[in-house]
Design goal:
- The protein is α/β, with parallel strands linked by helices.
- The chain has helices spanning about 1-10, 15-25, 40-45, 105-110, 145-165, 175-190, 200-215, 240-255, 260, 270-280, 300-305, 310-330, 340-345, 355-365, 375-385, 390-395, 435-440, 465-480; strands spanning about 25-30, 50-55, 65-75, 80-85, 115-120, 195-200, 220-225, 285-290, 290-295, 415-425, 445-450, 485.
- It is built from 18 helices and 12 strands.
- Strands 1-2-3-5-4-6-7-10-11-12 form a 10-stranded mixed beta sheet, sandwiched between helices.
- Helix 6 (about 175-190) crosses helix 7 (about 200-215), helix 8 (about 240-255) packs across helix 10 (about 270-280) and helix 10 packs across helix 12.
- It is globular and about 60 Å long.
- It starts with a helix and ends with a strand.
Length: about 500
């Protein structure tokens, strides 16, 4: 701990000369790494530079093995305020192209900021890990019987075993605290006394940890889709079953009003009955769609993915999904709609292996999980009546119950007087709205921007709420937080 404090103090007292020297440590180059690198080509076309920065794998051994952080930079086109680092969340989501995402707002923000897309350690191009997972097995629902729950536990144990075999040497160092240390190395290498930061979902937790570990080194901070910093870890989803049930009921009301189109029922109750029919069916017989089998482990994941957005196009996609599942109860669906076929292909193949590997390593590396599988089974059972559609996935067992290494540091206790604008949707299906108040209390000089009645995870530049977008941009440009919490 003393060594880590010494490193933090060293960073705080870095001289102008040292910063200039550190800046040269970034190896800037074109972004496309090959002729078929679509991500790199898109960045090059946008005028971005890409860079690599070496940082310690283990910060207790600063002269030991190094890993590479990959970043992109699109320079400000107008009167420059500073550098804005963007994290897309996950955990496990690459952020190299974050400056190209949400183009409506990023085009405006980019007039005043250098936009920095940074792949966190172990993700994307930043010395990635890959546990060679055969399919996206976490989260995976526990089902309704001890047999289905054991099958889920076996899948989680297999994820842990594969990660131990394929990435064991790196696992102790893939943590949020180390990613925060990386972020400060990036700040120094960019030559910035302070950086601004925009984090979505898990990125709100990373931002909060950075504020705690490196006070005074941020200018303007936006945290969108807030995570409770005291709860981040293997059981993070444990609290979101109720709002997902609420969102499912709200969607069912939407679908009932459009029964002439979707034929799922003319009332909320009838639509929910159609869904319950699907759930009852998979207790004994898997559904067959596009060559894939959907049982109790996978079905809640599909609903978890589908009910993440209350805008009409997303709700219509969810209705088509439910239509297809209802058809599959009566027999195999050989040719599902292309987007559903693609979703199933991605989930049931190694396509998500790298993302799930990094996500799991971060979550398990930050906080220990109960090792007794029955803890999770009892939790599912205790909440099954109140969370019939989601409890078996939000409360189910994770690979962390079998993880080969224990966390190397205690979780960060966030309690400071830094400043931030916290953006929260009132009915966020991924992170409870109550988290905004918790995060505000943890970061005392912060304000909450609430988007009323919104059922979407991720607001700024994603939800299409002009009021919220304008308030965030106003803060980023002026540096002035609202005098009190505000709502759109």
């Amino acid at each position: 701990m003393k060594l880590l404090l010494a490193l933090a103090l060293l960073g705080a007292s870095t001289s102008t000369t040292a910063v200039a020297q550190a800046t040269s440590a970034i190896d800037w180059h074109q972004c496309a790494l090959s002729a078929d690198d679509a991500e790199g080509k898109a960045l090059d076309q946008a005028g971005a530079q890409c860079g690599d920065l070496k940082v310690p794998l283990d910060y207790t051994r600063p002269n030991g093995p190094k890993i590479t952080l990959a970043m992109s930079r699109i320079k400000a086109t107008g009167a420059r305020i500073g550098a804005l680092v963007i994290n897309n969340g996950g955990p496990g989501s690459p952020s190299l192209t974050a400056a190209l995402d949400r183009p409506d707002v990023m085009g405006t923000v980019g007039t005043r900021y250098d936009l920095i897309g940074l792949d966190p350690r172990a993700i994307g191009r930043s010395t990635p890990i890959d546990c060679k997972l055969p399919f996206a097995g976490w989260p995976w629902a526990g089902g309704t019987t001890q047999t289905s729950f054991r099958q889920s536990a076996e899948i989680q144990a297999d994820v842990a075993n594969r990660c131990a075999r394929e990435a064991g040497a790196m696992l102790p160092y893939i943590t949020t605290r180390n990613t925060a240390r990386d972020l400060d190395r990036v700040r120094i290498a960019l030559g910035e006394q302070k950086i601004s930061y925009l984090g979505y979902s898990y990125g709100t937790y990373l931002g909060a940890v950075y504020l705690q570990m490196f006070p005074g080194r941020t200018d303007r901070v936006v945290l969108d889709g807030p995570v409770d910093p005291d709860r981040f870890g293997p059981r993070l989803l444990q609290q979101v079953g109720p709002q997902n049930e609420d969102n499912l009921r709200a969607w069912a009301g939407w679908a009932a009003a459009r029964n002439s189109t979707y034929r799922l029922g003319s009332t909320t109750r009838e639509v929910l009955a159609s869904i319950d029919r699907i759930y009852r069916h998979v207790r004994t017989t898997e559904l067959e769609i596009g060559g894939h089998k959907i049982g109790e482990g996978l079905l809640p994941m599909l609903f978890f993915v589908a009910m993440n957005d209350d805008r009409d196009p997303a709700r219509a996609d969810a209705a088509v999904l439910v239509q297809t599942l209802v058809k599959a109860v009566d027999g195999p669906v050989l040719d599902p709609r292309a987007d559903l076929a693609e979703l199933l292909d991605v989930i049931m193949s190694p396509a998500m292996s790298q993302t799930i590997s990094a996500q799991t390593a971060i979550v398990c590396g930050d906080r220990a999980a109960p090792r007794d599988p029955q803890v999770y089974w009892r939790d599912i059972q205790a909440h099954r009546s109140r969370e019939p559609h989601y409890g078996s996935i939000t409360r189910s067992i994770s690979p962390c119950a079998f993880w080969p290494v224990q966390p190397q540091e205690a979780p960060t206790k966030v309690a400071n007087s830094e400043h931030a604008l916290i953006v929260a949707a009132e009915h966020d299906p991924r992170t409870a709205y109550e988290n905004a108040a918790v995060l505000k209390k943890s970061i005392s000089d912060s304000r909450v921007l609430t988007v009323k009645n919104a059922r979407k995870h991720g607001v700024f530049g994603e939800y299409g709420n002009a009021c919220a977008d304008q308030k965030v941009i106003s803060y980023l440009f002026s540096g002035k937080l609202p005098t009190q919490d505000v709502a759109c």
